[in-house]
Specification:
309 residues; TIM Barrel; alpha/beta; binds flavin-adenine dinucleotide
Length: 309
């Protein structure tokens, strides 16, 4: 019997094996956070994600921690890491040196971003004197120094908060693609119609790289809503209503979050989406459950070679 996800995927001419996921983590600050991160990585790794990405703190504040986390993923797991990198607060030479060190360490995927203004989201962005101006410049630099490195970039289903109109937004994405980006990952969104409308705009501009939806499981509604406001992601009233009155009820919140997120993801499968990027917040449970609903099952380690036994 087909699972729900398999039936949905096949309605769009896809099979479950076409579905791919990637997971985003942030570099831990403390030993306790490091343990949480690694427990999550170990739990999610058997789902065989396409790649796992590690964010870069605002202003490059996590440079060493991002690098250390990526290096540990490379040395201790079979996962393919993607290192996030921004243009903020560094000269071109400094950014190039980080790229070179990733290349040397065996990293073959970078998520290239401009980053947020040093004074915080909402203030004017000023490129570092002698630094890369925007993500498109960083993409070009990475690809020309290390053509072996795959580059992903950001995209915004509801426009970046600094974009005055759609033509500037789509032109910016096109510049990043022309500079060598081969995948865009979206800021999270809760209304799938906005994502579908964005895909139409992207296609109309002749952009054909995959636009992978960024999915955020809502672990804490008020925190997510605050972050969404800063990031320019709208929170529809119907979405907020689902978490109403659950502030002091963690168990129900968790169940509702799983239901809401799986509903979003399965609706995207209905719309023909096959790749999903999960903002894990370094927590595995919700993401694991949603991947399970997508039909993913842990890949068992290969049996020992009989001849060698
Ligand atoms: P860009 O693509 O360079 O664009 C930024 C803005 O400038 C857009 O509004 C664009 O339209 C406008 N623009 C570009 N070129 C021009 C031009 N020539 N003239 C006028 N306007 C122009 N931040 C972090 O600090 N660390 C991370 O690890 C991180 N990871 C992220 C991962 C994803 C998937 C996403 C979606 C975002 C992430 N961010 C991260 C946040 C990101 O850094 C911010 O959203 C930042 O404000 C913009 O970066 P960008 O790469 O999208 O910028």
């Amino acid at each position: 019997m087909m699972t729900d996800a398999a039936a949905r995927a096949s309605r769009t001419g896809k099979s479950l094996s076409d579905l791919r996921v990637s997971f985003e983590f942030f570099p831990p600050k403390t030993e306790a956070m490091e343990e949480t991160l690694w427990r999550s990585v170990e739990r999610l790794a058997p789902l065989a994600p396409d790649f796992v990405s590690v964010t870069y703190g605002a202003g490059g504040s996590t440079r060493e921690r991002t690098h250390a986390t990526v290096a540990r993923i490379l040395s201790e797991t079979a996962l393919k890491p993607a290192a996030h990198l921004t243009c903020v607060g560094a000269t071109r030479a400094e950014v190039d040196a980080v790229v070179d060190s990733y290349a040397e360490a065996g990293v073959r995927h970078i998520v290239a971003l401009r980053g947020d203004p040093v004074e915080g989201i909402g203030t004017a962005y000023r490129p570092h004197p002698g630094g890369y101006d925007r993500a498109a410049d960083l993409v070009g630099a990475i690809r020309s120094r290390h053509p072996e490195i795959e580059v992903s970039v950001s995209a915004y289903a509801e426009r970046h908060p600094e974009s005055p109109d759609w033509s500037i937004e789509i032109d910016n994405l096109k510049r990043k693609v022309d500079a060598g980006a081969s995948r865009a990952i979206t800021q999270f969104f809760f209304d799938n119609d906005l994502y579908s409308a964005f895909l139409d705009r992207v296609a109309a501009a002749g952009i054909s790289i995959p636009i992978v939806p960024g999915i955020v499981p809502v672990l804490n509604f008020s925190q997510t809503a605050k972050f969404a406001e800063k990031a320019g992601a709208s929170v529809p009233d119907w979405f907020a209503a689902r978490f109403e009155g659950l502030e002091d009820d963690a168990a129900t919140r968790q169940l509702v979050a799983a239901a809401v997120c799986s509903e979003q993801v399965l609706d995207l499968v209905d719309r023909g989406v096959s790749d999903f990027h999960f903002y894990t917040m370094n927590r595995a449970d919700l993401v694991y459950a949603i991947c399970h609903l997508l039909g993913m099952r842990p890949v068992k380690p290969a049996a020992p070679d009989a001849a060698a036994a």
